[in-house]
Amino acid sequence: MEESTQSAMTAGEPVTGEDMPEPPPEVIEAARNAPDHWLAMVDLTWQGEGPPPLWALIGQWRSGPTGEIEEWRDNPEYRPSPQMLDWSEPTDAVDRALQLAATGYGPGQDVSEALARAEVAVLVTATGTPLAAASPEGTPVIPVYTSQNYLESVGRLLYDRRPVAELVGQLPPGHALYLNPTGPVSMLVDTEELRTLLAGTTGPPHETSAGVPAGTPDGTHDESREAAAAGPLRPGTGAGAPEPVGANGRAIGKPARAANGTTVVGAGLAATGAAHTSP
Asked: What does the angle CA 8 – CA 9 – CA 13 come to, to the nearest 5 degrees?
């Protein structure tokens, strides 16, 4: 472990005795084989090559001279992954990219790329027009849902399934896509970036269930085609209301369990290094 990383890791508050999280068997074994060392734990969601970055390290144990675990320190720079935040398992490729991007374990570009290839559910009026709403920040949006689970959380409302390549051509001016507002994390999606991605794709356009071609190439709002493209509309099958989400930032996460205590579950041994306790 680099000296700068080790220094940052040991900045955490030392925890000893019964207050320490229980180390897994592989850490206990590693401590016996490496007395007087730091044993760092990495969040296994990180899958990069080489040493893990500081933000992917959960914390570290310190082994004493006899090889027994004597101390635990949380890493103050750690970014909990979706799994460590107890978020529900991703329901699809878009949801997976969204969860990783929101926690810093994946690039935001992956969300747009996955969404551009997806079909989503959108709430609609009786005439098939996508139902508009506002985000917590007041941005005009069209809520969309990538899975049936998230859609059912809205309640029994009229909806339709449409390819995103088609839907972006049906958005009212000035509206963004609001992705999975009932999921563990939601996001406002830049439709201009989506249109740029879609313009660079090749092959035949997506079609709706009624066999109507996707939206106009310039992404303009065409109400006559919109009504025809809606096809057979479907009522929702669930009940209840969406849970509230926060209003800070573009990615909005629900309150989640802090990464302490049981955070060692599913974590892996990242590295060992000579122990140097801070004064």
From this structure: 105
- Percent of the chain whose pLDDT exceeds 70: 68
Distances (CA, A) of 246 to 182, 187, 200, 250: 12, 11, 34, 10
Q: How confident is the model at residue 6 (pLDDT cuts 50, 70, 90)?
A: low
Q: What is the pLDDT of residue 193?
A: 84
pLDDT, position 201: 63
Single pTM value for the model: 0.67
Rounded to whole angstroms, the Cα distance separating 2 from 128 reads 58
- Give the separation between CA 37 and CA 34, rounded to whole angstroms: 6
Query: CA 132, 166, 109, 181: dihedral to nearest 10 degrees?
Result: 30
Nearest 5°: the CA angle 54, 99, 258 is 60
Taken in order 97, 98, 99, 104, the sign of the CA dihedral is positive
The amino acid present at 239, given as its one-letter code, is A
3-state secondary structure of 83: coil
Average pLDDT, whole number, for the chain? 74
- Tokens 């709403």, located at residue: 133
Q: Which of 126, 223, 239, 219 is nearest to 176 (CA)?
A: 219
Distance CA(159)–CA(167), nearest Å, equals 13
pLDDT digits (tens, 9 = 90+) for 225-262: 333 333 344 333 222 222 222 222 233 333 222 222 22
Q: What residues contact residue 41 under an 8 Å CB cut-off, 6+ apart?
A: 27, 57, 58, 59, 60, 61, 264, 267, 268, 269, 270
CA distance 207 to 71: 60
